[in-house]
Amino acid sequence: MKKSFRGGIELIISIGVGVLLALAGVAVKYFKWYFLIAGYNMASKKDKEKVDIEALGRFMGNMLFLAAALIIASSILHYYQYKILSMVMIFLMVAVIFYMAIKAQAYSYGTQKEKRTNKLIIIGALIPGVIIMLITLIPGAMTNEAVLEETFLRVSGMSGNTFAYESMEEIKLIEELPRANKVVGYNFGNINKGTFTVEGLGRGYLYQHSGKSPFLFIKLAGDRNFVIINYRDSEKTQQLYKGLKERVKN
């Protein structure tokens, strides 16, 4: 895919976030700006006395450096279309957050019971977020089947839709998919489904299951613009193209 101006802006913003995290790490670890540590800054004086703040500051600083590196790496990988590796960085970020939240309890002088209770509270707070993330990712990873009905093409699954044969102005296979930006839908790795703005084509429907060509391109009449479909099995994409060409004579 080609890179767009918008993609460059997103990269700059993401790298900026990473740099801010790194600067926060420097502030906490080397300048002892402990008020930047969430939870500690709101704790009572009595509770603060139970914390080995210098050790905690060093630990939190190192974790912020790691988080910054992961965000910057993920942003660069995503910009250059290595989306799977980019998502790996994101999952590592989640792991770092879990580790940071739990390990931080080791720098408290509280009793083992207090530490254990705090860990359970932290885990309980983080687990719903992970569950929500999985609920979002799993349905989107399922294949959208394209079914040739009598008068229309039906795309099932997440962000599915129907497209009348009579509205199809052009049907062809293309070898390269231009850069696409999600408007509404799902975007994970090389899986893109929903409404996207595709460079050079405008806004339309994308059901991409793989980064491999070919891609089935369908030009639509009116403001719906186009539909692009492909599958991990290129033969399946080609069979859909042949079946659709038989249904639509233009």
UniProtKB/TrEMBL annotation:
The chain crosses the membrane at residues 12-35, 56-78, 84-102, 122-142. Pfam families: DUF3784. Keywords: Membrane, Transmembrane, Transmembrane helix. The keyword Protein biosynthesis does not apply. The keyword Disulfide bond does not apply. InterPro entries: UCP037672. This is DUF3784 domain-containing protein.
